[in-house]
Every structure is written in structure tokens, then in C-alpha cells.
Amino acid sequence: MKIILFTVDQSFSVSVAALTGELIRAVNGILTLAYLTATNESRDPGEFILDQTSKLLGDIKVERRRQEGDSLDEIMALIKAENYDLAVFEERRRRGIFPTEQDSLVQKVIQHSPIPILLLRQKSNKFEKVLICSGGTNISEPAIELGANIASKLNAETALLHVEDKVPTIYRIAGVRNDKLSNIMSEDTPLAKHLHRCGEIFKEHDLKIETLIKHGVVDETIIDTAHKDNFDLVVLGASWSRKKLAGFLMGDITSELIKRMNSAILIVKTGI
Prior knowledge:
alpha/beta; Rossmann fold; 39% helix
């Protein structure tokens, strides 16, 4: 797996560099460090930052890129030219109502990137528990597949979460609790078929998982589950299509999760 870790006019934090190194070792990947800057001043610290981060990664061999110019254009050019499998960004939250320039850039990259994006926070320091979010149809299968692959290589405790925004009438009448719909797997429905397919994917990766079926507002339920059960990484399928798809997350929900989640987030494009 070829992975590129980006920063724009700032240093890589120690925790993010270390966690990226852990991922590289787990997947036996190849790492590129990319420092982007809008300045061409001689005092620019880019080379120093790349050198120090390379040393921090120890025995991991890294390629280094320092580039000038418009950040979004440079990022997309690198991603497309080098055939990377995953791009990693650090999200540094700052106080304030409005998003920072860096926040806006990451949102644009997520929308335009043809490859998955991993967002890490400075508080991210481990990959022990992974929550993979399912959209209930095969459109979310790329996210399930990548999440299972990474979780298995990390040897992480893993759960699959599917959120329905409404409780079916039959379950309301029967009085079955929203998060205890275990009999759903025995039904002949698209959701049941999808969950069985998810089970096959997890089995292919020799990964034992817990399946969670919950009802509620999608973003609120994902955030509540991730925070309550202390998941370190949340895997999301996302689509920015203007057409309403039968898939999982549209752009507005994904954006809300990015703003409010405390854990690392892996965003996998699942539709056009």
C-alpha cells in the first residue's frame, strides 16, 4: 500500500507521524512525506521538517516531497501522478465558529480525491478499536473492504455499525429495542443480504467483528457510538453525488462527522 502524509506550511506532529508509522508497518506499506507551501522564501522550514520527521519514523524508509504552489492543485497532482492508495492529513482543531483555511482545504481534498483520505488528530495515538460504518447496500462495500483489510492487519478489535433513521413499523409494534434487532439477518431484505456480504468480507480477512444495528439520526448515532465505546478509528463510506443515492453518507453528513468526531476518520469514496 502506497501512503502519502501531507502537511501544508506546518510541521508534522509527533503523534500523527508515529501513528502513520504504525500503519505503514502493519500494512507493509511505502510512505511519502509531502510538505506543501505557498512561499518560495529561503527561510521556509520545509526541508528541515521533512528531515526531522524522517528521523522520527526510525527504520521506515520514506520518500520526500516539498512543493510550492496552490495547495489543492499540488495535492491532487501528487495523488494522481504517483498512484497512491491512501492520503493522510492531520486535522488540528482551533477554537472558533468558522473553519480555518486548512479545514476548508481538507474538505475540498476529500470531495475531489479519487483515493481514500485518513484524517488524524493530535490526540490520535493508537489503532486498537475500529468502527466500520455500513450504508446497508453494496454501494458502501469499498469502505467495508478497506476497513476490514486495515483492521485485520492492525489486529484491531472491530465492529460493524449500520444506522437506520427510522424504526420499521413491525418492530415498533413488536416492542423490539432499536439496537437489538438480531432477527434482521434471517430476513430476505437488501439490508440482510448486505450484512451477509459484509460477513463474507470479514471472513476473507480472518476478522471477527461485532455487528451493531441501531436506529436514529445517522451522524448523531455514529458519533455517540464512537465516543461511548472509545473507537480509535471510524471508517466511513462517502458520496458527494448531487443525485440522491441509496447509499450511506452524503457530503453534508460526512462534513458534520469530520467536524465533531474525536477519533481518527478514514473516508472512502463510494459513489459518483
